[in-house]
Amino acid sequence: MTGTTNDLRSALDEVSASSAGGAPFLIAYGITFLITAALALFLPRPTAALIAMFQGGVALPLAFWLERRLGSKRMAPDNPLRPLSVQLAMSQTLGLPLLIVVYSLNPGAVPIALASLGGMHFMPYAWLHRNRLYVVLGVALSIGAFIIQVLLGSAAFFYVLVYVAIVYGIAAPQVYRHAVKLIREAA
Question: Using CB atoms within 10 A of its CB, is residue 16 exposed (0-12), middle (13-18) or buried (19+)?
Fold first, then answer.
């Protein structure tokens, strides 16, 4: 192997080690999606849709806190993949205009829009964390939520939120185990 290949592998190992493979984000967002689903049983749909759109305001700090607990080390400031990692993490925020339009047209469609955006968001993480599970996660989120939406129509709101939480909950320990494996192999 060349030095460049080793450098890239080391940079990728460090990204996965510092973020625990992304598991803290799946855990935090899974929890907030589940809480949002529970609130949707009691709140008017437009209110629940707003909570769903902005639940990341609670999930993100929780995810960063979990990342410090589960990650094995912090990413070095000079890691060449640091800017890419940040850009991938922030890419979902570009979906906010879509969510605003969806909300204004049909608040009940916000969960399917979130699932689709989430599915798209996860695809590049398959490369970044060298874990094909992110492809499965992305496809499962998008297609599974779509099927629920088609089958249940306007009743799908709650079920899509629960589905997303369950998919995140299933994926989190698997991506964490994969990250731990990469860290051990790098040591």
Answer: buried
